[in-house]
Automatic annotation (TrEMBL):
It is a multi-pass membrane protein. It is found in: Membrane. It comes from Microbacterium trichothecenolyticum (Aureobacterium trichothecenolyticum). Keywords: Membrane, Transmembrane, Transmembrane helix, Transport. The chain crosses the membrane at residues 54-73, 80-98, 104-130, 137-155, 161-179, 186-203, 234-251, 313-335, 341-363, 375-392, 398-415. GO terms for molecular function: xanthine transmembrane transporter activity. This is Putative pyrimidine permease RutG. Belongs to the nucleobase:cation symporter-2 (NCS2) (TC 2.A.40) family. Its main location: membrane. The gene is rutG. GO terms for cellular component: plasma membrane.
Length: 448
């Protein structure tokens, strides 16, 4: 594993250059940038356990450990922070409600094992097979349906304190359009802070657990550990609900690696397989001991783009900070005290944004929605997810996410096969051609 070399004078980034993964600034600057990464990941990472009922401190601990594990497996060449994945929220919520947290943790472990297995295949066979299995219209549909499936959960929290929820939602939106750069990228975190203050003023916050810990002097302590229950009768039907999450994590990790490669050097792409293996291993570790499943974080890509520092040294600092933060039960209790109104406001935006990420995949890849195969791939899967379709056979149950993902894959591949056999023109004909110029100033047409 290579050591870091000092970039330039060690204090500043040279004009027109970036600090590469195997470089670093001096340690005070590196620590400061590492702290920025902690702030960037924090708003999203703590929300997942709060929304799913998992211990916040446990999730933070394995988020930090997972990040360090990721850096080791990727040979210290791929800068990334592993935070809580929003893709797990829907299946974890459903699994916890029906079978308990042990079964939900089993689902997280299963996702991690499968993701790591995919990583090994990618490491030796490349990414081509994934792109054929999950083309843009399918990938976008699966990501979108996971977000939109959560809409009823957001409404349940929202209606418990509509005023607080509305103020929180407005704060999130205002933060994203009012502030530039880093503050704009953590608008969800800022919205939670504003909402929490409003909830305090409206006396909606319960400090019972926090007061007990402070009174007993429990400022430092190990997080709570919980374990998966693979032997539970309903666990295997629960695991089926988690399988579509693997496709989302693949898309997120591949996108992360390509983003870093674009901004640093193309050779980073060779670590795609290792990234998938590392995220899978970190997810297995987290699920084994009671933490949320992990993924690479776009929030931290934003910090790297803003600072032009892609040094993995900053992520070692961030991982250690997260571990230290997790060792305070009081910190975990404060985040667990966030009331329903605040969660309702922030998740109205957050769950919708997950859906929009899927739609952005369609836009970026110029999916042709004049083709019936593409139309029905997206339409059917989204309605299944939003309506909450379920199928039950005795103790075995399939939820809306797995049904929707299966529908997207089946409609696309079987529909294309039939349309091409019959030559009806209903198949996916590839991306739409670009219309008009791709850049520069608008050109005024002259009437002759």
């Amino acid at each position: 594993m290579p050591l870091w070399t000092i970039h330039g004078n060690g204090r500043t980034v040279e004009p027109g250059k970036v600090v590469k993964p195997d470089e670093r600034l001096n340690w005070p600057a590196t620590v400061a940038i590492g702290a920025q990464h902690v702030i960037a990941m924090f708003g999203a990472t703590f929300l997942v356990p709060v929304l799913t009922g998992f211990p916040v401190s446990t999730t933070l601990l394995f988020s930090g450990i997972g990040t360090l594990l990721f850096l080791l497996i990727t040979k210290n060449r791929l800068p990334s922070y592993l935070g809580s994945s929003f893709a797990f929220i829907a299946p974890v919520t459903a699994a916890t409600a029906s079978q308990g947290m042990g079964s939900a943790l089993a689902g997280i472990v299963a996702v991690g094992v499968l993701l790591a297995a995919v990583g090994f295949i990618v490491q030796f066979a490349g990414l081509g097979w994934i792109e054929k299995l999950m083309p843009p219209v399918v990938a976008g549909a699966i990501v979108a349906l996971i977000g939109f499936n959560l809409a009823p959960v957001a409404w349940q929290n929202f209606q418990q304190a509509p005023i607080t929820a509305t103020i929180t939602l407005v704060a999130v939106i205002l933060g994203s359009v009012l502030f530039r750069g880093f503050l704009g990228r953590i608008s969800i975190f800022l919205g939670v802070i504003v909402g929490y203050i409003v909830a305090l003023l409206r006396q909606e916050v319960d400090f019972t657990q926090v007061n007990e810990l402070v009174a007993n002097g429990q400022w430092v302590g190990l997080p709570t550990f919980q374990f998966p229950t693979f032997g539970s009768p309903g666990t295997w039907s629960v695991i089926a609900m988690f399988l579509p999450v693997v496709l989302v994590l693949i898309a997120e990790n591949v996108g992360h690696v390509r983003g870093v490669a674009t901004m640093t050097e193309a050779s980073v792409n060779q670590y795609t397989g290792r990234a998938l293996i590392a995220d899978g291993a970190a997810t297995v570790l987290a699920g084994t001991f009671g933490g949320s499943g992990t993924t690479t974080y776009g929030e931290n890509i934003g910090v790297m783009a803003a600072t032009r520092v892609y040094s993995t040294a900053a992520y070692w600092v961030a991982g250690v900070f997260a571990i230290l933060l997790s060792l305070s039960p009081v910190v975990g209790a404060v985040f667990n005290s966030i009331p329903a109104g605040v969660l309702g406001g922030v998740t109205t935006a957050l769950y919708g944004l997950i859906g929009i990420i899927g739609i952005k995949i369609w836009v970026d890849n110029r999916v042709d929605f004049s083709r019936p195969v593409n139309q029905y791939t997206a339409a059917v899967s989204l309605v299944i997810a939003i309506a909450g379709f379920t199928m039950v056979w005795g103790d075995f149950q399939l939820g809306a996410i797995v049904i929707g993902a299966a529908a997207a894959l089946l409609i696309y591949h079987l529909g294309n096969a039939i349309a091409r056999w019959r030559r009806t023109g209903a198949d996916d004909g590839g991306p739409l051609p670009a219309v008009g110029q791709l850049g520069g100033d608008p050109q005024d047409s002259q009437v002759k």
